[in-house]
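Structure request: PRA1 family protein, Papilio xuthus.
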Amino acid sequence: MAENVNIDLSGEINATTEKKGLQKYVNEVELLLQHVRSGAAPALVLGLLSNRRPWTQFIATENFKSPASIPRLTRRFYRNIEYFQANYLVVFLGLFAYCLITSPLLLIAMVASFFGYRKLTSGPNTWKIGSWELSKTQQYAVYAAASMALCWLAGAGAVLFWVLGATVTVVALHASFFDAESLPPSDEQFPMIEQV
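Returned structure:
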């Protein structure tokens, strides 16, 4: 009765566990940074912007309510961040554009830095200081130092922190007070059930 049965068990097992909460977003940010490093940032931004929700839904004042409890606030916050992420990106870009328009010196510094970079990468450039020729790495270092100095003089640090601070404030307030239960159902099975 006993037969020898040969079963091939070779291969790879890809056991990925579904991440929840903050770890899910940390992994998504790491994946996003990998795409940015590979040069896919413009396509990624355009793909994200194609998922933008209607502005009438985004600013519907009848959906703003204070959360009943801290766990509900947490779920509401994550759900709104996930659902309205393209709208939040547009808010950030709008605040950034506002800062560039209202600070002409910063706009000039950004344009000068951009065209300096284009000139540097456009072909075989040789820079000489006296009789000493700079290598490409040294040229990039000089360009980076000059761009940072120019942006510092134009007040880019203050603008950066203002834009980030204003964006975080607007996004946190909207995500916290916009009632996520009024949104269409998500893929999760019971996203708004509270554990007592």
